[in-house]
Prior knowledge:
- This protein is mainly α.
- It is 38% helix and 0% strand.
- The protein has helices at 5-8, 21-46, 75-79.
Amino acid sequence: MLKTERDMFKTEREDLLTENDRLERVLMNVTQMFSDLVTRLLVIASLMISEMISVENPADLLTRGVTVISLKSKDLWWSGPPWMYSSQSYQPQ
């Protein structure tokens, strides 16, 4: 069986040596991005996620034929659905 360099030279610590400092920056950026992603996922997981029907969703107004000009007169666009300001028992589950 063929041994790899890794198998032949086992050490307590493994390092990657390079003359290119971009690799180190890229790896640090990836590490930071992963850390940020985990933080965001933890925040999202702690939120109550509910489903909203389309007629109560302000983001769906344009897909239902409302023009951009008429959006300014739509309370749903500016304030959201009325249940948003009620107790949680009225919110969709």
